From TrEMBL:
Keyword Repressor part of the UniProt annotation: yes
Keywords carried by this UniProt record: Repressor
InterPro entries named in the record: Carb_Metab_HTH_regulators (IPR050313), DeoR-like_C (IPR014036), NagB/RpiA_transferase-like (IPR037171)
Domain DeoR-like transcriptional repressor C-terminal sensor: 9-164
Claim: Repressor is one of the keywords in the record: yes
Protein name: DeoR C terminal sensor domain-containing protein
Length: 190
């Protein structure tokens, strides 16, 4: 019960941190997952934007907002991840020119970057990140320092890293150090 409460609080904290990045008239490409659904619940009712998503669950939440245009990208459906995926989905994503891409991390490591356990999902997330001017990675602290078998993106390809932690938390030091060594200022820790 306590773990469930902590996970819910972490999810809400991450979602609230990213809301200020979303502005009127933006085109947003958003993945699936619990944090993405919570993020939608935190959006201001007056927001005017276009959302592309690979998640039917996220799309349903987005339809509760009168001023949002919602585009569900269709293809094969993963019963486990509750998202669409595959070549057809990736082809559709390559036609999108988003202002911001928001994806949830399954694994994030200071040296290996954003990773995933499934190649098909890794390729999908990579296409999503490439379709946007800026990227925001949503990551539970428990998934930090985790390297899974397929790489999605290097750390220097990420614009915003959003966790439930305070940006000065010692768990983020390795990520900050990785960027300082390369003379890079990104990602912004939120």
């Amino acid at each position: 019960m306590l773990l469930t409460i902590c996970v819910k609080e972490a999810k809400i904290n991450i979602a609230k941190k990213i809301v200020p990045l979303i502005q009127d008239e933006m085109v947003i490409l958003i993945g699936g997952g619990d944090i993405a659904i919570e993020l939608v619940k935190q959006l201001p009712e007056t927001l005017v934007a276009t959302f592309f998503t690979i998640s039917p669950l996220v799309a349903v939440e987005l339809t509760k907002f009168q001023n949002l245009e919602v585009v569900l990208i269709g293809g094969l459906f993963s019963k486990d991840a509750k998202i669409t995926f595959g070549g057809h989905v990736i082809n559709q994503i390559t036609e999108i020119k988003a202002d911001l891409c928001i994806v949830e991390a399954n694994g994030l490591h200071p040296k290996n970057g954003l990773t995933d356990s499934e190649l098909a999902i890794s390729q999908l997330k990579k296409a999503m990140l490439n379709a946007a001017q800026r990227s925001a990675i949503l990551c539970y602290a428990e998934r930090l320092n985790t390297s899974l078998k397929t790489r999605v993106a290097k750390l220097n390809e990420i614009d915003y890293l959003v966790t439930e932690l305070d940006k000065s938390d010692k768990k983020l030091k390795a990520y900050q150090a990785a960027f300082l060594q390369k003379g890079q200022l990104t990602p912004v820790f939120i």
